């Protein structure tokens, strides 16, 4: 099955790049004899936010399409930018940062970056390509292997759930298998080591549910070992408390194609390669494994959320009673039919871009099974999947979404406005382009038959990445709206987004509030948190339903307040009620020690910043409010000796603040919160500002430090642009509050 195209392009695989430090992250194990492409031939194309990486084959092509500064930066190549005048004041530092960061703005006006971290995304894509006989271009295969080897744990040979995590069965099994599919040999020393680790973890039978699912599809595990994913759940009436439409959107959109594929028990035809892999994944020969006895086996390293007793019983009933005795052929057909209908709606609503890479890869396989290998749907998925790929100095990875376009662009705009530089002629063209991008990306229509496919109202909203993906997120809509309002209120900027379109955004935001007053991510919460009982994925926490988040709630609070400033009459009573509710929730979510737990950034510094901004927006500050002073004291007591803040991802897993070395991003979050709260002693804030400024490079950039983001409590994800957006915002707020005096 000619998976990896044979060498036909004259690519020499020689190492000629000098790996720059900009994108380097905390752990970069040294690697020997790595096959690589010519890094100078890679280019990023961005068409209205649709980002794809291209490998140019000929010298002529490279001349016609030269590498941009942004390309070179993303690839970790030297930029040869001149040293800027040394900054003394916070505004000097921001000017330098903008001189640098403005050069990374892409033609449509947005910013981009690597959005990696989770290690289970890339395997999904490769499995889908393998199953659907999609040829993987050789440069992609080479660079994916390079990335995966670069991320191999040098001590034990395994891979984790995310790039900074310890090796797990999930990470190790899936990475091992895809390395083999990508052409890495069984006798490769690195794979021998990985196999050792895999066997130490008990072999593939100890993988979590999502690993077993893919292994079964690939035919290197039997379906008997996979816990049930019954599509008939989609048939239960909507009023049933556990009906899937009530689940968190990522869970139900993954469950959807998974349940279809599970029901068909599809297995890709075996090949010599898959037959060989079968013999590599287990601690005994494949034929001697009793797969049915391993449905519930799982390595302790992966068992972050152990299956509940109730779920185990339900699985037993499904396996031993429902499927063999009760499920009729007509029920199966009905369930599969409705499931495929919903899959097609998701594909159509997003033109096959899909919610995120996990469901996208699975939808492609479902289309392959249902529509056949040469169908339009499979071809369109084949065209779209590469939008998740990202190329960096370590090789090629898969991003968490099809980009960070709207999110990061909105933050940059706000940071510059807060620094008082939006009217500086130097930055007007950059911000105008950002505004044009945001205008272009606003979602203008609801989904077709949104109720049938359980979609949230979205007219007027913004999606985290692009309008094409098209899922409103409460905070992305809010941050983008704020960015638009801030710029459009200045005479230098055109009114690109009309008043009516802004009201559409407000209308949609107001549909997203929970009864608690808080805001969740994509939708209001639709089901009870008892649904966590049905969390079958083992490796993640808090995934089954939406929850209220201080981050999302704050974004909405600040957006609604800003909107009311410009338009005090529109839906005045609704807005004021929404604000009261959101603030009530934020106050209630504070922990007894004064902190807030962050769900999307690491962790207490992130949520603390948001919560304090919310409270400050209604005038609650350190001196007039004990809640705020307690929150400040919490942050202050976590400040490190060097003046910075540094929080380990362990905070997210354990719910307890865990220190690590100071990070510019977390330092910025902490002082933004303190400044919003009007913390009375400026000395700790000054020390933090010095740390941030002191770490700025001569060309204006900050170097990548530890990982910044998180989801589902256990998975970390990189937000590399935060080292620009939040530093600029923090320094800008400082200059605005305390004056732009010399700090260094
Ligand atoms: C994201 C990225 C952005 C993030 C914020 C806007 C920062 C947040 O405030 C709300 C939630 C949201 C939109 C979010 C949700 C979950 C995502 C999409 C991700 C963390 C990026 C990747 C992740 C997704 C679930 C990855 C696929 C994994 C599965 C377990 C399905």
From TrEMBL:
Residues 1-29 are annotated as: Disordered. InterPro entries: SQ_cyclase_C, SQ_cyclase_N, Squalene_cyclase, Terpene_synthase_CS, Terpenoid_cyclase/PrenylTrfase. PROSITE patterns: TERPENE_SYNTHASES (PS01074). CDD domains: SQCY_1 (cd02892). Gene3D superfamilies: 1.50.10.20, 6.20.120.20. Residues 94-392 form the Squalene cyclase N-terminal domain. Keywords: Isomerase, Lipid biosynthesis, Lipid metabolism, Repeat, Steroid biosynthesis. It is an enzyme of class 5 (isomerase). Its EC number is 5.4.99.-. SUPFAM superfamilies: Terpenoid cyclases/Protein prenyltransferases. Residues 1-12 have a biased composition (Polar residues). Residues 406-734 form the Squalene cyclase C-terminal domain. Pfam families: SQHop_cyclase_C, SQHop_cyclase_N. Belongs to the terpene cyclase/mutase family. This is Terpene cyclase/mutase family member. It comes from Stereocaulon virgatum.
């Amino acid at each position: 099955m000619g998976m990896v195209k044979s060498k036909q392009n004259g690519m020499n695989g020689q190492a000629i790049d000098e790996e720059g430090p900009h994108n380097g992250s905390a752990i970069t194990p040294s690697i020997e004899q790595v096959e690589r492409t010519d890094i100078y031939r890679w280019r990023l194309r961005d068409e209205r936010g649709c980002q794809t990486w291209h490998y140019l084959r000929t010298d002529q092509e490279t001349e016609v399409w030269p590498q941009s500064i942004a390309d070179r930066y993303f690839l970790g190549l030297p930029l040869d930018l001149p040293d800027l005048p040394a900054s003394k004041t916070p505004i000097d530092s921001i000017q330098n940062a903008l001189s640098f960061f403005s050069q990374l703005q892409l033609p449509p006006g947005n910013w981009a970056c690597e959005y990696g971290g989770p290690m289970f995304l890339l395997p999904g894509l490769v499995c889908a390509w393998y199953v659907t006989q999609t040829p993987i271009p050789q440069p992609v295969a080479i660079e994916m292997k390079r990335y995966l080897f670069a991320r191999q744990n040098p001590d034990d040979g395994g891979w984790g759930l995310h790039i900074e995590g310890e090796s797990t069965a999930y990470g190790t099994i899936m990475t091992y298998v895809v390395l083999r599919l990508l052409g890495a040999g069984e006798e490769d020393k690195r794979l021998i080591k990985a196999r050792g680790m895999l066997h130490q973890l008990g072999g593939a039978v100890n993988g979590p549910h999502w690993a077993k699912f893919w292994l079964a599809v690939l035919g290197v595990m039997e379906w008997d070992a996979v816990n049930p994913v019954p599509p008939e759940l989609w048939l239960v009436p909507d009023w049933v408390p556990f009906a899937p439409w009530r689940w968190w959107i990522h869970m139900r959109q993954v469950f959807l194609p998974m349940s279809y594929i599970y029901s068909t028990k599809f297995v890709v035809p075996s090949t010599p390669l898959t037959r060989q892999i079968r013999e590599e994944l287990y601690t005994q020969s494949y034929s001697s494994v009793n797969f049915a006895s391993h449905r519930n086996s799982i390595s302790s390293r992966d068992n972050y959320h152990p299956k509940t007793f109730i779920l185990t019983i339900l699985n037993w009933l499904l396996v031993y009673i429902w499927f063999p005795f009760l499920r009729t052929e007509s029920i199966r057909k009905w369930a599969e039919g409705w499931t495929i209908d919903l899959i097609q709606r998701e594909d159509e609503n997003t033109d096959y871009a899909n919610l995120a890479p996990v469901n996208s890869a699975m939808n492609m396989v479902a289309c392959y099974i249902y529509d056949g290998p040469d169908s339009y749907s499979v071809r369109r998925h084949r065209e779209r999947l590469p939008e998740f790929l990202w190329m960096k100095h370590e090789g090629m990875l898969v991003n968490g979404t099809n980009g960070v376009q709207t999110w990061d662009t909105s933050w940059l705009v706000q940071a510059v406005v807060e620094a008082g530089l939006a009217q500086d002629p130097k930055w007007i063209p950059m911000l105008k382009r950002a505004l044009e991008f945001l205008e272009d990306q606003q979602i203008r229509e609801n989904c077709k038959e949104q109720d049938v496919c359980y979609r949230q109202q979205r007219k007027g909203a913004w999606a985290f990445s692009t309008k094409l993906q098209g899922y409103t997120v409460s905070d992305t809509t809010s941050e983008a709206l704020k960015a638009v309002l801030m710029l459009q209120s200045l005479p230098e900027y055109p009114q690109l987004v009309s008043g009516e379109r802004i009201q559409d955004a407000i209308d949609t935001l107001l549909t997203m509030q929970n009864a608690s007053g808080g805001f969740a991510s994509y939708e209001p919460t639709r089901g009870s948190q008892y649904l966590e009982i049905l969390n079958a994925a083992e490796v993640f926490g808090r995934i089954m339903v939406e929850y209220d988040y201080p981050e999302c709630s704050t974004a909405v609070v600040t957006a609604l307040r800003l909107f009311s400033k410009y338009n005090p009459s529109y839906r005045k009573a609704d807005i004021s009620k929404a604000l009261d509710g959101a603030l009530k929730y934020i106050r209630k979510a504070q922990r007894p020690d004064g902190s807030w737990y962050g769900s999307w950034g690491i962790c207490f510094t992130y949520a603390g910043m948001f919560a304090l901004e919310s409270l400050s927006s209604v005038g609650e500050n350190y001196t007039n409010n004990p809640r705020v002073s307690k929150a400040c004291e919490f942050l202050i007591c976590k400040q490190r000796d060097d003046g910075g803040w540094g929080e380990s991802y362990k905070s997210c897993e354990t719910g307890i603040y865990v220190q690590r070395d100071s990070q510019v991003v977390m330092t910025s979050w902490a002082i933004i919160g303190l400044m919003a709260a009007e913390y009375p002693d400026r000395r700790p804030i000054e020390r933090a500002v010095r740390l941030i400024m002191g770490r700025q490079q001569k060309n204006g950039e900050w170097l990548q430090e530890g990982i910044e983001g998180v989801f589902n409590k256990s998975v970390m994800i990189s937000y590399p642009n935060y080292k620009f957006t939040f530093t600029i915002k923090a320094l800008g707020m400082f200059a605005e509050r305390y004056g732009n005096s010399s700090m260094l």
